[in-house]
Amino acid sequence: MRVLTISKAYVAGTSHRKLEELAKCPGVELIAVTPPYWLADDGSKQELERVYLEGYELIVTPMALNGHFHIHYYPQLSSIMRRVRPDIVHIDEEPYNFATYQAIRLARRYGALPIFSTFQNLYRRYPPPFRQFELYCYHQAQHAQACNKAAGEVLRRKGYKGKIHLIAQFGAEPSLHYPDPQRRPYQPGEPFILGYVGRLKEEKGVPLIIEALAMLPECCRVVFIGYGPLRDELERMAQRLGVAERVTFLGSLPSYKVPDEMRKMHVLLQPSLTRPNWMEQFGRSMAEAMCCEVPVVGSSSGEIPVTVGDGGLIFPEGDARAMAECVRRLLEDQDLYQRLARQARQHILQNYTQEAIARKTYEVFLEMLAERDASASTPTSAS
After folding, report:
1. What are the pLDDT digits (tens) for 333-371?
2. Beta strands 57-60 and 29-34, pairing class
3. How far apart are CA 118 and CA 152, in angstroms?
4. Per-residue pLDDT tens digits for 277-312
5. Which of 151, 147, 100, 146 has its CA nearest to residue 122?
6. How many other CB atoms are there within 10 angstroms of residue 377's CB atom?
7. Which one, of 219, 222, 217, 223, lies nearest residue 191 by Cα?
8. φ, ψ at 153 (rounded to 5°)
9. What counts of helices (H) and strands (E) characterise the chain?
10. CA 292 to chain centre
11. For the whole prediction, is pTM greater than 0.90?
12. From CA 338, how far away is CA 351, in angstroms rounded?
């Protein structure tokens, strides 16, 4: 089974652990394609991290229109497929994106079975040519990976007739995301660290963190890991509310260094806000923190309650006071805190590890090949 998987998300080194696990599956020859960097919509440039590279081939190839989610593509993809001759092509992009259309069209040209991914958990109609890309992919790909339940429901509503497999894009890696073995129970008066990992953007609800911090005791501190257009506004807000000395901005860190910072946190905050064109689709940083035995206080937006499960507390999105109350509960009730911390890690180990996601993906690939072989062996009726 020769599998070609294509994703801009592979620029993050921790994503490569899923590739290593997939490459371990019986009979898999895995080739991964990714660009040398990705220009995020928050203005940052994420360079390729080479971390977990055992057992598969990583092809780094230029991306045209880098930074444009819906119209980027890979100019050298045809020559790559011609050389690789894959049995399966997994394009880790939405079906309405040009890169998905390109990959599936080339997969068909070279006789490969295509599968695409979808995260879009809001029903939206797209103008030409994106609707045409979408319809082509629906018709040509008989399998799709829905990275959350709502995304699968959207696919069906929009007319997709193929098989839908509910599998997260990425998860946590227990050998990297593990609890601090030296952490002792929290003692009153010590710093109580609240963390946020992700883009500093309005829809992520990050101003609510500063607002909530102003309602919490002096022992509470906030650490922001990430880059985005709201940083200056957050600094001004912290000054205005008198909490600037309790806020730290670490900026963007390599993905493999983030777990060390997570282990210093007592709680991860995920205050995402639903918008007409977006709501939280998974929350990978939550899975990684929970695997480190860090409970999550998250909003009710999108997939957050599902990802958190019984490993944290949920508050109504947009309600800073409710978020502060959840933090206060964890600060003041250490029995509750310790129970949620243990449950958080168990929830991830049972549902969202890179190994588990790779195994589920492999099972889909086996099913695709079995269908192809069954179709090839079915005799045609004489005319």
Report:
1. 999 999 999 999 999 999 999 999 999 999 999 999 999
2. parallel
3. 8
4. 999 999 999 999 999 999 999 999 999 999 999 999
5. 151
6. 7
7. 219
8. -65, -35
9. 13, 15
10. 17
11. yes
12. 20
